[in-house]
Amino acid sequence: MADLITLSNPFVTASFSPGCGGAVTRLQVAGSSGWVDILRPATAAALVANDPQGMACFTSLPYVSRLYQGRFDYDGATYHLPPNQPPSPHPLHGVIWRRPAEISHIARNKISIRHDVDEADMPYRFGSEQVWTLADYIFHISISVTNRGVKALPYGMGLHPFFRKTERVGVQAGVGAMVANDVAVMPTHLQPLPLECDFSRRLQPLNALPFDNCFTGWSRQCTIIWPDLGVGLVMTATNPFGYFVLCNPADADWFCANPVSHFNDAHNNRIGLAETGLVRLMPGESLYGEITLRFHEL
């Protein structure tokens, strides 16, 4: 387990693991009765093993979610990525989440996290930077990735927070259609949100949202409230985060509300969407996006 790095101000404190991709290990907000965990804190086992699945939040680059069999065709060539979550044959969440990070800058309220990926057997060769900043009740990240390869490739990015699930937590996010999945969480078709759990129009209790899906047409804003904790947040994002993932396992003490640039397996686009959300980057070109969490007391 690598040493953790902590940023803090009187209102927000956040810790990071350089040994686990720069993942967030804990995020707390000052409430009327003390510090409140907003994200599920990293487990002790995850900290020892540098396991991102047990962290509080990680960044996905240069793609998000699952890539079918680790294979895609682009500009007449076929590319392969190795599995990274055995026993699944489908690599997921990109590359950097399982790699140690370089800390390029650190201050009391700001940290810059870099990755350089340049292996002969890796289709994606890139440099990336995550800059996390605290300001009063704000937790902000900017993400950038630059294609350092010799060919154009489709790039994407996302943030994967594990929010605390409490009895009364509620979610609202303006979205369009739902990407329906098969048992392997691969997309099969688009469908409307069921009326009984349409969180795009109003705040819905999380226990009424039985989803593990990506949604199109995200408004780039999501509201989450925890009445039982006395806090809430508004999450906003810039381009390219036009999709939204809600994952709510019935037996977990967490849920995910993820800003992402594209849907699962968008590289293969077997559902035929006109806009996949992936961004073509020529060698030397970059993709950039920002996500902001603004906290408030209820």
Task: Give an account of the 3D structure.
This protein is mainly beta. The chain has a single domain (5-297), classed as Beta-galactosidase, Chain A, domain 5. The chain contains one helix and 24 strands. A nine-stranded antiparallel beta sheet has the order 8-9-10-11-24-20-19-14-17, with no helix packed on it. A seven-stranded antiparallel beta sheet has the order 5-13-22-21-18-15-16, with no helix packed on it. A hairpin with a 3-residue loop joins strand 1 (5-8) and strand 2 (12-17). The longest helix has 6 residues, at 44-49. This is Aldose 1-epimerase. Pfam families: Aldose_epim.
Secondary-structure-derived class: mainly beta
Level-2 CATH architecture: Distorted Sandwich
Give the overall shape: globular
Question: Which value, in Å, is the CA radius of gyration?
Answer: 18 Å
Q: Given the structure, what is the number of helices?
A: 1
Features:
mainly beta, 7-stranded antiparallel beta sheet, Gal_mutarotase_sf_dom, isomerase activity, carbohydrate binding, Aldose 1-epimerase, GH-type_carb-bd
SSE layout and pairing:
Layout: E1 5-8, E2 12-17, E3 23-31, E4 34-37, H1 44-49, E5 57-60, E6 71-74, E7 77-80, E8 102-107, E9 110-117, E10 126-135, E11 138-147, E12 153-155, E13 158-164, E14 170-173, E15 178-181, E16 187-191, E17 204-205, E18 212-215, E19 221-226, E20 231-237, E21 243-247, E22 254-260, E23 279-281, E24 286-297
Antiparallel strand pairs: 1-2, 2-3, 3-4, 5-13, 6-7, 8-9, 9-10, 10-11, 11-24, 12-23, 13-22, 14-17, 14-19, 15-16, 15-18, 18-21, 19-20, 20-24, 21-22
